[in-house]
Write a structure and sequence with these properties.
The structure is a single chain. This protein has two helices and eleven strands. The protein has about 170 residues and is mainly β. The protein has a single domain (about 20-165), classed as Glucose Permease (Domain IIA) (Distorted Sandwich), CATH 2.70.70. Strands 3, 4, 5, 6, 7, 8, 9, 10 and 11 form a nine-stranded antiparallel beta sheet that branches. About 35% of the residues are buried.
Length: about 170
């Protein structure tokens, strides 16, 4: 009986993540599809990581970066490759990763709505000296096994969503 309760509880928590509305916003204010190269997702060879598991949305230095959906901010700080980063948990148990920021304007533990300003476009991390841009990735905590393919590191596609499709409401 105890295990049944635990399973129901876990299923309820997982289901709750799918009930939350998931509005989708391009995460650089006033950006459009023309501000990134749609073929950059899963492009290889791509430095240390082997494949580029996101898209780079180009914009002027300091241009506002906005929440791509409703998010709970889990982390903000510095990473070697990503520079200044923000990590948020969104609907459907998806992690939204924003990298190369000039600055962040949110705090850990804060809930933000889609379109709220969370930072600004920059060139931090391994983007230093390159045109300012936002690296944007989406990682599913629930494996999407049907997305696995024969590409190099294709098994990781069970976790990494294509931001092009996401922003165009295709996944």
């Amino acid at each position: 009986m105890k295990y049944k309760f635990i399973l129901v509880f876990i299923f309820s928590i997982l289901a709750l993540g799918y009930i939350v509305p998931e509005p989708r916003v391009i995460p650089v204010l006033e950006a459009s599809q023309q501000d990134w190269h749609k073929e950059s997702f899963w492009f290889e060879p791509w430095g240390v990581s082997g494949t580029h598991k996101g898209i780079d949305i180009f914009g002027d230095m300091g241009k506002p970066v906005v929440a791509s959906s409703h998010l709970l901010i889990l982390y903000l700080g510095q990473l070697d490759m990503g520079g200044n980063v923000i990590v948020g948990l969104g609907p459907k148990w998806r992690i939204h990763y924003f990298a190369h920021l000039q600055s962040a304007t949110v705090e850990i533990g804060r809930f933000v709505k889609a379109g709220d300003v969370i930072g600004s476009v920059g060139d931090s991390g391994n983007a230093k000296g390159k045109p300012p841009h936002l690296h944007f990735s989406i990682i599913s905590l629930v494996p999407l096994v049907w997305m696995i393919d024969s590409d190099s590191q294709g098994y990781k596609k069970a976790f990494y969503l294509n931001p092009n499709n996401y922003l165009l409401n295709k996944n």
